[in-house]
Design brief:
It is built from ten helices and no strands. It is an all-alpha fold.
């Protein structure tokens, strides 16, 4: 009941802040932008009048897997920025405002507090990803060719794990810093740092989290699931759990010391 009360409070708070509306809408916009833009690009270029008179623009036909991969890459990059922005004050904001003291004055378990907040954000991300990836899949199938439903659910599962990992990273920074801006900056910075690390060691460690996109692109192209993709999923899941445990431990020590 204690955990559910905090979880319900977070759901209501997300509704009051309109996160249930704007987060899915932004995810949808980012996800469908590439398929629609690629399809109507010749018409858009003609409307701008940038072609010489009488010139005919012939664009190479893109494969469904290529368009889907580009859309997913955009969703990953911009989605992490969105996640960092809407979670940057999840705990740090309450610590800074003093609300945390009113919550923890009751016998509230630290693990309940953090995991309930994490779960409420996961539910929001699940819905945003489902509609974002779902509509992207719809437009790819409509405008470029067929991609299977099985591949959709595999993609959805992997992206849920990817965003859960960064949600745990954000909550980890939430318990370290009181300034929400610092939390957002560190979360986004970690994303770009992981991209750099992936460029250095990605070819040596195929289970590194960022390798998920390379594996997923290969699956989309070949329509055959490779074993490395499950290894990468396991590493993301394990890292997510470890970060949550570390965040709870640091949070407990900081609050007890106060």
């Amino acid at each position: 009941m204690q955990w559910y009360t905090i979880f319900e409070k977070e759901l209501v708070e997300n509704w009051r802040n309109r996160k249930w509306i704007w987060v899915p809408l932004v995810f949808i916009l980012v996800a469908v932008m590439d398929p629609v833009t690629f399809h109507f690009l010749p018409q858009l270029i003609e409307l701008t009048g940038s072609l010489p008179e009488g010139a005919v623009l012939e664009m190479p036909k893109m494969q469904p897997a290529e368009v889907a991969a580009t859309s997913l890459e955009s969703l990953s990059t911009y989605g992490i920025v969105i996640l960092a922005l809407f979670t940057m004050g999840a705990i740090s904001g309450e610590i800074k405002s003093g609300v945390i003291e009113m919550i923890l004055v009751k016998p509230v378990k630290y693990s309940h507090y953090i995991t309930a907040k994490w779960s409420a954000s996961v539910l929001l991300i699940l819905i945003a990803l489902f509609f974002g990836i779902g509509l992207s899949w719809y437009y790819v199938n409509l405008l470029f060719g067929t991609l299977s439903v099985a591949l959709f659910f595999l993609t959805f599962l992997l992206f849920v794990l990817w965003f859960c990992l960064f949600l745990s990273i954000s909550l980890f920074y939430n318990v370290l810093f009181k300034a929400p801006g610092a939390v957002a900056a560190c979360t986004i910075g970690t994303y770009f740092l992981m991209n750099i690390v992936d460029m250095v060691i990605g070819n040596k460690w195929s289970w590194f989290p960022n390798q998920m996109f390379i594996h997923l692109q290969e699956v989309l192209m070949t329509k055959h699931v490779i074993g490395d993709i499950w290894g990468t999923a396991f590493v993301m899941l394990l890292t997510t759990v470890i970060l949550l445990v570390i965040a709870i431990t640091i949070f407990r020590k900081k609050e007890v010391s106060h």
